[in-house]
Amino acid sequence: SFSNLMTENKWYIFLVIFGILVGLKVVSKKNWFYRFTGIVLLKLPVLGVYIKRIYLIQFTQAMSLLTNAKIGIVNGIGLVSDMIRFYPLESTLKIIEKDIIQGDKLSTAFAKHSFYDKKMLALLKVAEETNKTEYIFQKLYDQYSTEAKYQGQIISNFLNFLLTLIVGIIVGIILIAMYLPMFKLSSIIG
User: In a 10 Å sphere around its CB, with 0-12 CB exposed, 13-18 middle and 19+ buried, how is residue 180 labelled?
Assistant: First the structure.
């Protein structure tokens, strides 16, 4: 019956899929969709933390490179907020940039936002006191990269298990659908 449904309505199904793809393409350029997807990605159960860590890696790597090139912190934060297109990070960086210009300390400006973890805040405080921002951002980048690699392996192992389970269930359903009529036929004949 599923096969008949697909063959009878193939053009409707094709048009619906095409409409959804075109709609996503149009909507993806809207600012509200950009904000919505960024917030939703962070709230995903396991992947949200991983996605957040990936963007923190990009941020710390860019800041490490910029501070090594002797670009000021305020200018570096402004450049990174323009570079990385992820709403939760981008919006907080713009606020942090304004706060630092108004006289807040680096660690204080970052502490106002829950997007940044305690490890980053503690190391930024150390960076302010020792004036080693490029070293601290490089250390943060190294630590986040190591954590993301480990977390990526865990997620990959879980997804492999889940995919194997789903394929097994699909194959089981197909086998039952194929052989059940034969068993019923043999019981009728016998």
Answer: exposed
The closest of 95, 99, 97, 86 to 59, measured between CA atoms, is 86
CA dihedral 41, 45, 47, 49 (to 10 degrees): 90
pLDDT band at 190 (very low <50, low <70, confident <90, very high): low
Question: Cα–Cα distance between 94 and 50 in angstroms, integer?
Answer: 23
Q: What is the DSSP string of the chain?
A: -HHHHHHHTHHHHHHHHHHHHHHHHHHTTSHHHHHHHHHHHHHSTTHHHHHHHHHHHHHHHHHHHHHHTT--HHHHHHHHHHH---HHHHHHHHHHHHHHHTT--HHHHHHT-TTS-HHHHHHHHHHHHHT-HHHHHHHHHHHHHHHHHHHHHHHHHHHHHHHHHHHHHHHHHHHHHHHHHHHHHHHHH-
pTM above 0.70, yes or no: yes
> 9-36, pLDDT tens digit by residue?
888 889 999 999 999 888 888 888 888 9
